[in-house]
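MOLECULE: protein
FOLLOWS: sequence and fold
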Amino acid sequence: MQQRRGLVMVSDPELLDAILRLGAAAGCELERAVDATAARRLWADAPVVLLDAPAA
């Protein structure tokens, strides 16, 4: 069974690092989308989606 990954789409590198550290500490794998096209294919299956203001 494949584990679903959370989706992260943020532009701030410091915020991204903090989110990835928190995910790792919680044992939650996260996948980063660099743009809306990449996010679109992952969005429906992600158990959690984290966006910053520019991505929203």
Notes: The longest helix spans residues 13-26. The first strand starts at residue 6 and ends at 9. Residues 6-51 form one domain. The chain has one domain: 6-51.
